[in-house]
Structures are given as structure tokens and as C-alpha cells.
Amino acid sequence: MVQRRRLGDLDVLEVPGAPDGPVVVLLHGFGASWQDLLPLHRAIRAPAGTTWIFPNGPREVQLGPFATGRAWFSIDMDALNRAMMAGTHRDMSGITPDGLSEARDKVFGMLAALGRPLEQVVLGGFSQGAMVTTEVALASPLSPAGLVLMSGTLLHETVWRQAAPAHAGLRFVQSHGRQDPLLGVAEARRLHGVLTEGGLVGALHEFDGQHEIPPPVVDAVGDFVCDVLATA
User: Exposure pattern of 41-58 as b/e (b: 16+ CB <10 Å)?
Assistant: First the structure.
């Protein structure tokens, strides 16, 4: 049964597992909500007794005249749209987005309120959620059991390069569509390089698709989650 909870400063949807079992936390993308990734708890393989947590982004964003969504931090939509209209991708590797640190701290607070050892937690997300996941993991004094980075990109490269070696050995799985019109696969490859050069261990699963989570990625994430949590 899906439950609504308040953990720290974030509202979350929780699919409870065993009280002392592992946890998978998945952060949604820009303009979505905690409902967006919720179906994945039925699709991604995980050990018995796993608890699933789906937080709601702290910011409300306007998507149209009568539609709103949630976000983790602000995005320069004009710059993103100009790049898409030009058939290119915006390079965000030198940017520290407004609100990123606040989102990171709110996820820290949520994890603390959850009350589970971080080494039993797989932390992941899609798109903007994957960016926050990377920021949280690299800024944390402790490493989670693993990272799931679906269709993310490289932000403030200098900061992440400096932080990565402290988490050498941390395992991750990354995915990205080669035809992604929003966040280019080239930037995903650069992110993979920053992480692996810093000592993290993971594979980038590229697929022929766009900004999405296709079945082969769901399967790869399930294999990863089962693997890293088997020894958590």
C-alpha cells in the first residue's frame, strides 16, 4: 500500500518494506511529481522487503495556463528552448543552478528523517532528479549503496571532480538516449568520465531513444539494485 509521509522538509510517497530492509529512493524530473516514477516500484527488480521512497520536489513550477508541476531547482527554460530550436544541447557543466544546494539539503534532511543507514540506500533519479542525486551523493560524507542516474547531465564540473575521489568505489548505473532532445548524450558521457575518473564504478547504458526510461533500462536498473543491495 502506498503511503504519504513527511520526511524532513519533503513530502514523499512510500511503498513500505521490511523495517530493517533496504531502501530505494527515486527523484522525479523537472515539471513532474512524486507520482511520475511511482510505477517503477512494480517494474524494477529489488530484494524482498525493499522500501521505496518517491519524494515530491520542493518547488512548484508553471507548465501552462492551467497546469503545474514540481521541480528540484530552477531551470533557464529560454536557454534550453533556444538550444533545442537550434538543434543543439545546452552545456550545463559550468553552471551551478539556482536552488541546487537547497534541493541537496532537503534530500539530506529527508534521508536523515528516514532513519536508515545510508549504506542500505540506493539513491537515484531521472533527469533533474538524477542531477540532484549526483549532487547529494558527492556532497555527502558517507556513500549510499549505489546510484541510479537516468537521463541526467553534468553540472558544475569543477565541484564534482573535486568531490568524486572521496567516494571512490561507489557503484552507479547510468542511462541516456542517443536522440535525447533535452540533455545531450555527449554531456552524459562527460558525466560518466568525471565519475569514473574520480574512482566511482559504473556503466553508461546508451539506447536508441529520447528523454525516457525504456524497458532495457528498467531491466539494467533492476539488475544493479539487486546486485548492490545483496551485500548492503
Answer: beebebeeebbbbbbbbb
Euclidean distance between CA atoms 149 and 134, whole angstroms: 8
What's domain 3-230's architecture? 3-Layer(aba) Sandwich (3.40)
Residues 142, 214: Cα–Cα separation, whole Å = 31
Longest dimension (CA), the chain: 51
- 11-23-160 Cα angle (round to 5): 80
Query: How does DSSP classify residue 199?
Result: T
Tens of pLDDT along 64-82? Answer: 788 889 999 987 666 666 7
- Please give the Cα distance from 16 to 4 (Å, whole number): 11
β-strand 171-177 against 201-207: which pairing, if any?
Answer: parallel
Is residue 136 scored above 90 in pLDDT? yes
Residues 6+ apart with CB under 8 A from 148: 24, 26, 122, 123, 124, 125, 130, 133, 172, 173, 221, 224, 225
Tell me what pLDDT residue 230 has. Answer: 87
Query: What pLDDT digit, counting tens, does each position of 85-114 carry?
Result: 767 777 888 889 999 999 999 999 999 999
Domains in the chain: boundaries:
3-230
